[in-house]
Design brief:
- The chain has 62 residues and is mainly alpha-helical.
- It has a domain at 24-55.
- The protein is built from two helices and two strands, in the order ββαα.
- The chain is globular, with a radius of gyration of 14 Å.
């Protein structure tokens, strides 16, 4: 099994890398949505996760 490495972003925040498996139709929808909002698919997934964590009260708004 490959080891997972934390990566540094320009903001010096540590990010964890992992594999996500989603069906092709969901990926295509995410890809279109991300493009509409000028994000990468990865950026869109990260945005949606953060937005929902804040909305659920599990994360403080940054």
């Amino acid at each position: 099994m490959k080891s997972e490495k934390a990566q540094k972003s320009p903001e010096n925040k540590s990010k964890k890398s992992f594999v996500i498996r989603i069906d092709e139709s969901t990926y295509k929808l995410l890809e279109k949505w991300a493009s509409d909002e000028f994000r990468s698919v990865n950026g869109q997934i990260e945005y949606l996760l953060n937005q929902n964590l804040v909305n659920s009260g599990r994360k403080k708004k940054e």
